[in-house]
Amino acid sequence: MTNDHINRQAIVLFIALLIPLAFAAGRLTNAGGSNDARAEAVAIGEYRGGHAAEARPLFERLAEHGDATAAYFLGAMYQYGDGVERDAGKAVKWLSQAAEAGNIRGARQLGLLYLAGRDQVQDLAAARHWLRQAAAGGDAEAMRHLGDMNAVGLGAAPDPVAAYADYAAAATLGDPVAARRRDDQAGRLSAAQQTDGEQQARQLVQTDKPAAPPAMSGSPATTSAPTPRPAAASPG
Fold first, then answer.
1. 230 vs 50, 93, 107, 236, CA distance in Å?
2. Cα dist. 95→11, 38, 88, 103, 155 in Å?
3. For residues 157-192, b (16+ Cβ closer than 10 Å) or e, as one string?
4. Does some domain include residue 115?
5. Residue range 55-71: average pLDDT?
6. CA dihedral 134, 144, 154, 150 (to 10 degrees)
7. pLDDT band at 33 (very low <50, low <70, confident <90, very high)
8. Does 97 score more than 90 pLDDT?
9. Cβ 104 vs Cβ 139: under 8 Å
10. Structure-model confidence comparison of residues 141 and 25, the more confident one
């Protein structure tokens, strides 16, 4: 074990011990606190640097005190077994906490988890609810998956116009997969239906406020924003 690794572990342990003390002393009273933000940044840096085991206790301390981003990362880690044993129950717990606190990616990921039904009993109504919450925050991937659900009729009757609108809105936000599906879907619509879908897409984009660039499949450790692999795709 190198001195650098020992020093990193010591720093992470120190921060993990400091977080509850700082909260108790009133120095970390909200998610926007400077100390809280620094601890979160350290945890994310450790995770993306390939040190998920070191990041986990930091995320847990922060999530236990209401940090939605930390809860999101924990949920993703437990879902995919990144630095921890896979645990569907804990994935649902932490992703739910993140989603209910308004974390857009947490809502998207929770929706995908319920959609896939691999780690959790499939619940198409819950999948639609959380994907729509994420889409309302401008998450293009959530819009694309809603398009998939509308195209084939998952949780509701098939709606090709709504599917086209979801794909078109996601494509407008920069999702290339959605752009291809939009074009495929257009071939199944009449001119009037396509015009209707385009109007709906404009309304979606105007109503939904983009919070981040579109999140494509990829581990949180390797993407530039905290975005876990979609539950509907094979972990890789």
1. 20, 17, 11, 11
2. 27, 22, 10, 9, 21
3. eebbbbbbbbbbbbbbbebebbbebbeebbeebeee
4. no
5. 94
6. 110
7. low
8. yes
9. yes
10. 141
The domain total for the chain is 2
Q: Closest Cα partner for 78 from 62, 94, 98, 54?
A: 94
Does 236 fall in a domain? no
The span from the CA of 142 to the CA of 211, in Å, is 12
Q: Is residue 22 part of a domain?
A: yes
The residue segments making up the domain with residue 20 are: 3-101
Distance CA 136, CA 110 (A): 15
What angle, rounded to 10 degrees, do the helices at 3-24 and 34-48 form?
150
Amino acid at 6: I
Final residue belonging to a domain, choices 54, 70, 101: 101
Neighbours of 203 (CB within 10 A): 12
pLDDT for res 21: 40
pLDDT score for 208 = 56
| 89 in the same domain as 30 | yes
Contact 21, 15 (CB under 8 A): no
